[in-house]
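Data follows
____________
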Amino acid sequence: MYANQGGKDAWPVHEYLNIWVGNVAGVLGYAYMPGTMHDGVVINYRYFGINNKPPFHLGRTVTHEVGHWLNLYHTWGLSTGCDADDEVEDTPNSAEPNFGCKLEHQSCGGMDMVENFMDYSDDACMNLFTKGQVNRMESLFTPDGFRHSLLSSHGLDEGIQEPCSNLIKDNAETGVDCGGACLPCPTCTDQIKNGNETDVDCGGDCRPCGCKSTGQYSLMDYIESIKINDSISGTADNGGYYFNTKKYFSLYTNVTNTIELTPGKSENVGQHFWNIWIDWNKDGMYAGERERVYSTAALGKLSDSFAIGIPFPFEIDEHDTFPIRIQMKWGDHLVSGCDTFDFGEVEDYNVLFCLLYTSRCV
């Protein structure tokens, strides 16, 4: 998923914590909370481990980001102000981030815990998690916890791994750890990179992989839900990118289509720029104005309508399907269907065309 962008693909997330160290612009690092589309931690190489970049030189960036990976919020919660909360009983309520080492700083009627790893204090100032935070992290490893599977990770094994779980295509396997004597290899719509695919559900015998488009930071600006005619998808924050090759939106060619596009964090209303693309030639590139079928800007939830014209020389048949991409970017116009940008999110699906508006397409 990341190798074709110059990075390294993740190890199985149900068995390992993935930490990527790279040249990350503008931040010390970031992480994905349990249950999002992506999984792992990203650290700016300048601030990884013991380094020569004080005041973030003692490795606390990793501690902080792994805290997010283990389901901890910042000490001030999901937004600033005393009404927000980090869902941990024994961390004092804090109005906003603390920088430096403000040991006597007070807010929300009490002393801020600036020594907490989940604040924004300098590395030398951070030195603790509370018992409540420890309990919240450890709960992920209970039998019903989100990260319980790590307790049976192959990383804990000794000796030679079983052929069908060694992450290598070997013996009579037709894909990585599938086929032959192993379980059958899934298809091109299972949202897993397997078989001869070069990325998730694309390449090899599947559709071309094409270009990527993603938002780098989606905590405050993500796509809450998309509704096109009578088809809806509500996925909330997915770390900047989401795809579902099994989800189909219905579109009609001879009438106006209705859309409802809802950004997340409705209390933080800002100008969002939306694009909808249809990959008519199915090359995965979302290029040119004829593949951009809708574009607008709005504050908050958007309700609108648009008509679809089939560009020459393409023709469609009843119930023909095409890839569709919905982009949402905060604060500025989107240039292309392959943009990677700071704030916002991108979602990829399929669209199912009906030539007559007589009933639901799907």
Q: What stands out?
A: The chain has a mean pLDDT of 86. The domain at 214-354 is CATH 2.60.40 (Immunoglobulin-like). The chain has two domains: 1-159, 214-354.
